[in-house]
Amino acid sequence: MALPLNLATDEGSPDWLNKGDNAWQLTAATLVGMQSVPGLVILYGSIVKKKWAVNSAFMALYAFAAVLICWVGWGYQMAFGDKFIPFLGQPDVALDEKFLLSRTFVGYLPNATMVYFQFVFAAITLILIAGALLGRMNFHAWMIFVPLWLTFSYTITAYSIWCPTGWLAKKGIIDYSGGYVIHLSSGVAGFTAAFWQVGPRANKDRERFPPNNILLMLAGAGLLWMGWTGFNGGDPYTVSVDASLAVLNTHVCTATSLLVWLLLDIMFFGKPSVIGAIQGMITGLVCITPAAGVVQGWAAIIMGILSGSIPWYTMMVLHKKISFLKHVDDTMAIFHTHAIAGSLGGILTGIFAEPKLCRIFYLVPEILFVVFVNVIMTSIICVLIRLVVPLRLSEEELSTGDDAIHGEEAYALWGDGEKYESRHDSFYGADQEIPHSTKSGGAGGQVEMA
Q: In terms of CATH architecture, what is 18-398?
């Protein structure tokens, strides 16, 4: 039987192909993919109320599948293809055999590997946006939102910053692994949609939103943390010492951030919260992302200290005091854990990167550009979708949850996940006063989680 695509000849292993680099890149991409499926699918499905478990998990799973089809259909070429306009590539299909087997724009890899690697980053960005909208967005509206936002928002920032012909890339601006393209974008987009389009959850959900399965939540969080090895370790596009440095810095910063957040929870609330520790883990992962391969180990620890404290302060203190933030129902606090932590990481990279002249790559205009694009495009997309289907679930669906939306339920349990009275002591599940008070409270009644 003849081998397809001439793999029986040297064309299957051209001179430019580095098999070690290609193997690691495919492995790294799969690790990032597992952050979404099953990582965030499990995390979202377990950190919400029981009645939202199926819907939350399925929003993540749907986004992963929909992004892939759009990505190979036109998205990849818009983000990394030939120049169309200064901030966008030409839409085109990325399934042509000749294209997929030819060398990509960077590294000793085929385009097929790069398409796959960049897809998992695009997918997780959409899934992170879902975290801000859980518990009230119409699933049919979400089905439309995913391809539109990928096409008209994500591709713009990805092309501008990551593609060699992008206008910001030409200025020398770098984003090592998505601090801006992924985390700042998802945080701003989720906040924008939650602010004036989708609206808040039902009052009952905002008042009490306990996780339905904390152990599963930890399993999802663990997949997210370990998957970040590929998230940052794969971005040098080669098996190099830089990849090794990026991986180690990622885990050092994350562990530091988790411990700092945990200590702050104990100091101000008297309890070592599991949800809080996971939040600290997320902010550490996000903060180190722009810097992973360009800072020394001591800088990763400092970044972990700051990522475990500054987003904690914005979430647990400022969110309560600033009416604008308090008004927004960001279910998993994507704004704090991704927009704030991602911006912080980009700024700190400019300070700690070696050589220090790298700081010119992390100036305010890059942040403002990403914020502007995502606010405008997310708003336009939501307005257009609202002309076709409601963005928000009906009151009956909000009250019933999964059974009304999907005709399915996650568990046959009594009490909507609120069986144990001890859960009323959690300061992450109720809208109460924050620090310097004897009460415990969460940021706007949210479950803050990426």
A: Orthogonal Bundle (1.10)
